[in-house]
Amino acid sequence: MNRTIRALALVLAAGLAPFAAPAQPVQIERVLPAQPFELHSAGLCLEVNAPQLRLEGARVQLARCDGEPNQAWRHERGRIVSVANGRCLELHEPDVGFNGARVQTVRCDGGRNQGWRFDRGQVVSLADGRCLDAFGTEAERGPAHVQTWDCGSRRVERWAVATLGAPAPVRDVEAGPIFHHDQAAERCPRVCAPDRWTGAWRTTVPGRMSVCGCEEELPSWRRGREPVRDIAVGPRPMDERSFGELVRAMEAERFSQARLRVLESAVPGRHFLMAQLRSLMPLFDFPGERVRAVEIVAPQVLDRGELYTLYGALVFDTEKAQVRQVFARLPKRSD
Fold first, then answer.
1. Quick one: which of 136, 138, 176, 270 is 20 to 30 A from 319 by CA?
2. Which of 38-42, 134-138, 155-159, 276-280 has the highest average model confidence (pLDDT)?
3. Do the beta carbons of residue 209 and residue 203 sit within 8 Å?
4. CATH code where residue 197 lies
């Protein structure tokens, strides 16, 4: 048995073979409804912490479902956006790559840490592949601190979506000067009556005038709720442990051609992220070898829109151009 076969046998023995049925994660637009929705887990709703609603970096938590606007979300250009404050669901940048990372809402900037995909009922960060999760036993009581963690089978990593109707029109009502949220919480419900306060307010003239966001008492999007349904199941990329075994098997080979043969044997039936493909590039010394590795893996890459992140692992402009051509020739994914 030659070195290549022995190396591949080690990969299969390490548990890579049982992962032979992954497929493409579901894009946000193909899972989430066009109208606002709620995200449910463990019988609770994902929400923006109400007192922090107007703050950059507002905490996100699981709490009892009550139909309030801070529990309503929408999708916008591949991001998950709070209906209540218009900010994006984000994995706190300094925490990327760590379990227990903070999840918050901030101004939408298109960053990778604001990207999410849906995979077998889990909500997975595009930044590091970890799952949206609630902290420990807090999830049984609520409100529970929301974080990201290594994806597993915990109940608080399973999400379902409840479709809402179109939101009721919101109008701004002048309320005089408001200087902090506690003052808004006292004044805005009275200003909005008989309608309801949405929890939002803003200052229009510093020190002189603020307005409260008001909507009808029984908004149509609360009356029109559809039954909760599971998030659509989609294929998934190779898990970190199995991918690590593949890398070690390739590293065990002295020559690049043998490494390519190991890669060719492991790819069929499996899927990869662009970050995983990028991490394979240092295993090859010459441009032609790197391009060949891309040709092998490219048809199985799920997040092809992240191609630009691969360029940093390539040395020459010519190989970057060849890699662009490799992906340009691929048929468009239909799943």
1. 270
2. 276-280
3. yes
4. 3.30.1490.230
